[in-house]
Structure formats: C-alpha cells, structure tokens
C-alpha cells in the first residue's frame, strides 16, 4: 500500500505518517490517536474536513481499461472535484489558491481525503471505458472554464 502513496511529491514526514497509518489499518487496528493528532498538526482544520469526507465515503476511484486512474471527491458543498493523486492535483479553488498560488497549504481537503481513503481502504471503486473517463475529464474542464 505504501508504494501507492505519492512519496515523491509529499514531504517525507507526511508520506511517513500516511505509511504508518496504512500499516495500522493493514494490521486491522484502529489508527492511533497520535497519528490523528499529527495529521491535525500538519494540516490543521483540513484534516478534520478530509476525515469527514472519508467517513461519508465521498471518494471514488475511477479507473479505465488503459490503466488511467482519477479520483472524484464529492465536496461538502455538493460539488464534485477531480483529483489526480499521481501528480498531486485537485480541481478545487482551494488547491489553486492555497496550494499553488500562496503555498500556505500542502494539500486541499479533497486531495488529503483521497490519500486517507487509500490508507483506510474506504475508497469507492468505479470502472469505466476509456471514452467515459475522457468525457469525465473533459466535462470537468468545461465546468472550470
């Protein structure tokens, strides 16, 4: 599981924390409180919001026969955002502003929820054709414009 996490794009302390959380889940244990506190320390209120998204099972992994994988996260506002875990990207405005422009956050709550759902193995799964996945991505792009 740890190999699936984007260790290259996340600071090593975050990758290590997610890896330790994944190990706890794999052993069938609860995620230790100390890990949850560390998550809150690193990500602030986004950690709680991301955990809420995970609890509500708002994350769906969409995969196609060609191996392409994108995540869709149903945000608390009811809008769906597309996340690309492979390159550490989310289509939400908070990612564009706080992560890319201001660099005052490592991740938005949607992308953090994607990583947490991977760790906790709570991600919904949806298989679609390559054309359907392309249509999903193009629809997202049109909505942004």
TrEMBL record:
Assigned GO CC terms: Shu complex
Domain SWIM-type as annotated: residue spans: 81-119
Keywords: Metal-binding, Zinc, Zinc-finger
Gene Ontology terms for molecular function: zinc ion binding
One of the GO biological process terms: double-strand break repair via homologous recombination
Gene that produces this protein: ZSWIM7
Natural source organism: Equus asinus
Protein name: Zinc finger SWIM-type containing 7
């Amino acid at each position: 599981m740890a190999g699936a996490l984007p260790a290259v794009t996340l600071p090593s302390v975050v990758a290590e924390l997610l890896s330790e959380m994944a190990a706890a889940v794999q052993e069938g244990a609860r995620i230790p409180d100390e890990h949850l506190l560390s998550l809150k320390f690193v990500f602030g209120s986004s950690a709680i919001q991301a955990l809420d998204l995970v609890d509500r099972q708002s994350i769906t992994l969409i995969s196609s026969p060609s191996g392409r994988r994108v995540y869709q996260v149903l945000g608390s506002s009811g809008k769906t955002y597309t996340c690309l875990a492979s390159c550490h990207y989310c289509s939400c405005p908070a990612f564009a502003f706080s992560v890319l422009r201001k660099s005052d956050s490592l991740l938005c709550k949607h992308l953090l929820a994607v990583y947490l759902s991977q760790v906790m193995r709570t991600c919904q799964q949806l298989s679609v054709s390559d054309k359907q996945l392309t249509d999903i991505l193009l629809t997202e792009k049109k909505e942004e414009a």
